[in-house]
Amino acid sequence: MNKAAEDNFIVTREYKRFAEFCDACRRYRYIGLCYGPPGVGKTLSARHYARWDKVESYQSFKTSAALLDEVLGCDTVFYTPNVLNGPSRIAQEIARLRLRLLAIARGALYREEESVRACARQRHEEYWNTFVYTSDWLSEPPQSRREEPAPSLYEIAQEYGAKRDAIADPTQLILVDEAERLKMASLEQMRALFDQGDIGLVLIGMPGLEKRLARYPQLYSRVGFVHEFRTLSAEEVRQLLLQSWTPPKTVLPEQSLTDEEALAAIIRITGGNFRLLHRLLTQIARLMEINAMQTITRQVVETARENLVIGTT
């Protein structure tokens, strides 16, 4: 999900339920299972909850103060296993992602250290200009000379280095998307990470994930919460459309959706599936641009629907 998609994210009732579920897994250090049909927003919701687009944008020593402020306090890792995955690879990849959160936590100390060092440099410069370069070192008694101000730049570096080393891994929750990709050995690796780290873990996947994991009693016995990610209700879809929501880079004329038949057709065709709503509105915008239209009609919606490949959701 890019920045435009993140800025366009809609906090729906289903997202709020998902966020409460993740909060519980973090708080009680449980394994949680989240499942739902494709296109309902599981991945988007998980990335938004973890603030993962901003976390991925963070680069030590290169990130603006504004972005650092946005990601400070992030304690959730978002991870998608590769199609070909193994226990050692999963352990290495998750370790790298956790180090990214640790780098963010240390970033605040680097910024603080720079401020302290700047003040120290100014004090030392004033000391040398006032008491060193202007002093008569041959005639002035040693006891009357002012000592160099403390702390030194070296002492500051030592102090903040120790503070950074003392920061523990901030990871409190790991969100694993497309968990159905994980084979038995990889699932055992996830269980080992959960047992060793005193963290929460959420496995996100398709319907049937919970039944498959039930075959692994050592893992399944640690499951504390199960959450079904449902489609948007017809009323939520209606509210989104009436609020003139559009997918990123999709532009519709203002007040273009006033026809009740067109509105009902969009709700019926998408069935509350967020991905399908995204694709349908994109097609509608393309047709309206081609035909120089200003109002969405039922005919436009049906024509846009014909250009889509709609599978079983």
Helix and strand layout, with pairings?
Layout: H1 3-7, H2 13-28, E1 31-35, H3 42-50, H4 52-57, H5 65-71, E2 76-79, H6 87-132, H7 153-166, E3 173-176, H8 184-197, E4 200-205, H9 209-213, H10 217-220, E5 223-228, H11 234-242, H12 260-270, H13 274-290, H14 298-306
Parallel strand pairs: 1-4, 1-5, 2-3, 3-4
Helix pairs in contact: 5-6, 6-7, 6-8, 11-12, 12-13, 12-14, 13-14
Q: Can you walk through the features of this model?
A:
The chain is α/β, with parallel strands linked by helices and 313 residues long. It folds into two domains: 3-106 and 167-228, 3-Layer(aba) Sandwich (Rossmann fold); 234-306, Helicase, Ruva Protein, domain 3. 55% of the residues lie in helices and 8% in strands. It has 14 helices and five strands. Helix 8 links the parallel strand 3 (173-176) and strand 4 (200-205). Helix 12 runs parallel beside helix 14. The longest helix has 46 residues, at 87-132. The chain is flat and about 85 Å long.
